[in-house]
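Cont'd.
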Amino acid sequence: MTQPAPHPAAPPSRPPLRPRRSLAVCALIGAALMAAVDEIVFHQLLNWHHFYDRSTPPIGLLSDGLLHTAELLGLVAGFVLHADMRRRGTLSPAHARAGLFLGLGAFQLFDGIVDHKVLRIHQIRYGADLLPYDLAWNGLGLALLGVGAVLAVRAGRTSGPPGRPGPSKPPEPSR
Amino acid sequence: MTPEHVHSSGAVPGPAVLLAAAALLAVACYLLAATRLRHRGDIWPYARDLCFASGGAALASAAVVTPPGGPFTAHMARHLVVGMAAPLLLVLARPLTLALRVLPPGRRRRALLAAAHSRPAAWLVFPPLAALLDVGGLWVLYRTPLWSASHDRPLLQAAVHFHVLAAGLLFTFAVCRLDPVRRRWGPAWRGAALLGAGAAHAALAKSLYAAPPYGTGFAPADLHTGARLMYYGGDLVELALAVVLAVQWYTAGGRALARSRRRSGAATVPAAARADPPHPPGARPASGCHPYECDRERRVREGHNPQGSHIGQRISMR
């Protein structure tokens, strides 16, 4: 027993990481988090947005309800999927970080363009010149998306095609 | 039971007292049944007693106490308790499972089981249908002349409130899927139904913010507070339902994972396993816990009878 042999009861090999799933799950968390921040900060704390704007068309109302519920369910589903991947050891942290930023940015941009401008559910602020607010809002969304994209590219480079991070390790046989 | 009714008559109306009494009676029956189960030696978590009792108490108090705020806000607070919060608490306590366990084998138990496994019950707990009955009923109530018509017809009003409670119970039951029924719908169906119901509920709440229910005139401030209460109160209950679903999915996945790890551990044990003849799938693994033990642990955790048989119960009773 000089050389510690692998314990027979121990799991024989760690399962392969799932980068795409890590990215998607964390993007879901990111989008839901941004929606929650929007709801809490701009609707509740600052009272900038209107709860309901009379100019909202019915389709905007319906899509808003759908999006709002999807945000709640997405937050719960995202966290539980994340916990499941951690439990299985298939979470790729670099892709997860990239996904989080992509989700944050994508929701911010979607909210700024589709909700505020296309569906006109509500505006960022009332009784003020909207242009700087809109620019800042969508600019922040773009910046977050950019950070996410850079992180995703770097995560893809360091881990290589599906497998473990670190090129020194030989690719494991797929089970 | 609407605030106008309570205010105008001064005294508590009949149907409300009846509902409160029925709720408290149900709580008493539940606690009695759970106590009997525990005396017999079964495990039944106290948290379920607490859930059912608080659900029943919430229902009873919503029936007889007028919540603060304007008439519409008070109505909405009641609607939230009767149609969403109380049903969730009652369903989490698994009343059907308790009834099936506590009833002695015989005609009544067979009838209850037959009803739970019947085809109409299977259709009713189809999650999208339950969602439609629940939220569709709300749209009909607030967006047709039904509500104003029910103001001066106590029987219609009682029927409306009964529908809100029954549909809330049905929807929660269908989404949580804790009790044994004929067809068990997967998390995707239940999640989709929850999403659709939540969206329709939120849209209705926002539309009430702008336009009062058909044929009624509430003060704008009252209307706005009531609509916000509906919107955010609905969110809370939806969040709780989503957590129930997510926890179910997560624990089911954990059990499957533990099973597959036991199996793969058994398959890769070099010496002992190779000496034995090959196991059929699902046989006792060479490592990990004994399947009976695991099964027993799981059943105890889920609140099933630890003895595992009626013989065990009889012995523990003597």
